[in-house]
């Protein structure tokens, strides 16, 4: 899949506290019409089915959200067709999804039935042995992320003074007065999506997703994670003006917003770091670092530099641990794959596409 041509988010994150789920944000349950929850073990074709459904719905002219897997960004955890209130989602651990309106909205799809159970008996011992150490790799990754987050929080707490928060709130108010026009009488709503994730491939951000929806991008240059105050003000102002927003939390601090997308205005606010700058010339650039107290920055330079160096090393260790876990999972899938009836998987995908297509006429 070409990330830059499609809308790709994450609904799960490898966070310092462990796996953090936003799967309850996938679709508004009161507006959802058809959600297929996939069940089945490794290598049974869940991601293959979702990619097939996504491509087919795009070919029919629908906008599709691809939800990437934070364990393996090349795999999918869900495809969402917002205009139809439809989705297909991997409902297995760690992001277990259960129905709210079973039979009415949600239904299970058992891809485990596509396994050749007789053939798997011959490789049973190999299957049971190849996942040893898998959970230990994730535990190590989360310990590294916890230490990195504590160091990042130390720097942020040092610089985030009341004066800086007041500056950012004032700047946000000015942006709102320039960029927003009221739309309708009702307040807009917010939905949460992770724009990036800590993965075995490194720390990723789906900047292509922003470009797919927004022609104007404010780059918030933010080395020390200071953007929350400004983004909160901007999101509140946009919703008060009747605009729906996509609030994107920071995977390292899921209770804080790192990015804000306002599709109806073709407008986004993306916080960036020196390691992950906005790849093109932004519509506007705001240097949040420069808004911090200059004297405080000068006095703390050595402390902040040390923290960033150690944080980078800890993040590398976390990524390495995730890569080891990915290698173990690949080994398991390689054993399963030859014993999966993928013709049945493709047939189930076609059935789902046809069912979703009927929603267009309903």
Quaternary form: single chain
Low-confidence stretches: none
Secondary-structure content class? alpha/beta
Which value, in Å, is the CA radius of gyration?
Answer: 22 Å
In this structure, how is the largest beta sheet organized? Answer: 6 strands, mixed
Distance between the termini: 30 Å
Which sequence of SSEs, written as H and E, runs from N to C? EEEEHEEEEHHHHEEEHEHEEEEHHHH
SS summary, helix count: 11
Helical content stands at 40-55%
Features:
alpha/beta; 2 domains; 16 strands; six-stranded mixed sheet; 42% helix; 11 helices
Task: Please explain how this structure is put together.
This protein is of the alpha/beta class and 362 residues long. It folds into two domains: 3-115 and 340-359, no CATH class; 162-292, no CATH class. The protein is 42% helix and 22% strand. The chain contains eleven helices and 16 strands. The chain has helices at residues 46-59, 117-121, 124-129, 134-159, 162-179, 207-213, 228-240, 288-291, 294-299, 301-336, 342-359; strands spanning 7-10, 12-15, 18-21, 34-39, 65-68, 76-81, 86-90, 106-110, 190-192, 196-199, 202-205, 216-221, 245-250, 253-262, 267-272, 284-287. The strands form four sheets. The chain has a six-stranded mixed beta sheet with strand order 1-5-6-7-4-8. Strand 6 (76-81) and strand 7 (86-90) form a beta hairpin. Helix 5 (162-179) packs parallel to helix 7. The longest helix is centred in the last third of the chain and has 36 residues, at 301-336. The chain is flat and about 70 Å long. It starts with 6 loop residues before the first strand and ends with a helix. The relative contact order is 0.19.
């Amino acid at each position: 899949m070409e990330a830059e041509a499609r809308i790709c988010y994450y609904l799960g994150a490898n966070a310092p506290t462990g796996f953090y789920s936003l799967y309850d944000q996938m679709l508004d349950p009161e507006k959802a019409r058809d959600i297929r929850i996939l069940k089945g073990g490794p290598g049974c074709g869940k991601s293959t089915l979702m990619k097939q459904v996504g491509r087919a719905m795009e070919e029919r002219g629908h906008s599709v959200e691809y939800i990437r897997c934070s364990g393996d960004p090349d795999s999918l955890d869900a495809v969402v067709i917002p205009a139809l209130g439809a989705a297909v989602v991997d409902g297995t651990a760690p992001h277990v999804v259960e129905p709210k309106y079973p039979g009415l909205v949600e239904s299970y799809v058992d891809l485990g039935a596509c396994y050749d159970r007789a053939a798997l008996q011959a490789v049973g011992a190999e299957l049971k042995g190849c996942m040893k150490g898998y959970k230990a790799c994730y535990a190590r990754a989360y310990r590294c992320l916890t230490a990195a987050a504590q160091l990042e929080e130390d720097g942020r707490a040092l610089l985030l003074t009341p004066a800086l928060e007041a500056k950012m709130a004032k700047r946000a108010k000015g942006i709102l007065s320039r960029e927003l026009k009221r739309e309708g009488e009702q307040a807009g709503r917010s939905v949460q999506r992770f724009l990036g994730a800590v993965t075995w491939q490194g720390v990723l951000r789906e900047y292509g997703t922003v470009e797919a929806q927004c022609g104007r991008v404010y780059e918030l240059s933010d080395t020390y994670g200071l953007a929350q105050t400004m983004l909160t003000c901007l999101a509140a102002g946009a919703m008060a003006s009747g605009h729906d927003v996509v609030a994107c939390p920071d995977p390292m601090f899921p209770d804080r917003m790192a990015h804000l997308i306002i599709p109806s205005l073709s407008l986004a606010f993306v916080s960036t770091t020196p390691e992950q700058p906005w790849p093109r010339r932004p519509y506007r650039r705001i240097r949040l670092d420069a808004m911090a107290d200059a004297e405080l920055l000068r006095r703390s330079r050595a402390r902040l530099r040390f923290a960033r160096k150690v944080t980078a090393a800890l993040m590398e260790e976390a990524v390495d641990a995730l890569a080891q876990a990915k290698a173990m999972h690949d080994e398991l899938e390689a054993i399963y794959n030859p014993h999966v009836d993928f013709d049945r998987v493709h047939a189930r995908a076609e059935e789902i596409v046809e069912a979703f297509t009927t929603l267009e006429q309903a």
